[in-house]
Every structure is written in structure tokens, then in C-alpha cells.
Amino acid sequence: MKAKYEVTRYTGVPVTTDSAGHYVVTTGSKLHDWRTGKHTRGHFNQLGQLFLTENNLLIAVLATQPVAFKDRHQWTPMQRFTSETLSNEMVVKLRQQFHLDET
């Protein structure tokens, strides 16, 4: 039997940097879900943390949810967490904009 690992679903929105180097959400962006995979590098620390997808898309985490190991194939695995984060104010604003319940 293969080794099981903890799986978490991360709901986030793609971000880019503006000319001043600040993270911004592109107009019209939608929420998407990813999950930790067997080879995901780094660790999740807080909402607003950024991670890279396997296609090198930068995503800001706005919500998390544990996932049963057997159900993990419903979501695409992510590549790695970064040490970068959005400001707390921006996280609150985005969670309100996308109607995510406070946790």
C-alpha cells in the first residue's frame, strides 16, 4: 500500500504584480481549487499566502478545507508554497468580494 499523506483543498484566486510590485487580482478573476500533492513543497502558514500551480500561476489562498485522502483526485495538485503573502486587509477584502464565510 502506498503511503498516505495529509490532503488539504486550497481555494484561491490568481494574482499578478503591478508596476509598483504590489500583488493585484486581475479583473474578472474567479475562484479555483487546488490541493496538496505528494510532491508539494513548502508549508501552508496563513490565509493570503501565495503558492505556485504546476503551470507556474501565482495563487493567493483565501480558504482551506481538509480533504479525505480517497477524494483527492477531484482537484489538481499544486506545485509549491512561497513565503510571500497578501496583506490582511486585502485578504479580508477578497474574502468579502468572493462571499467566503469567515472561518
From TrEMBL:
It comes from the Bacteria. InterPro entries: DUF7671 (IPR056088). It holds the Pfam family DUF7671. Residues 2-92 form the DUF7671 domain. This is DUF7671 domain-containing protein. It comes from Furfurilactobacillus curtus.
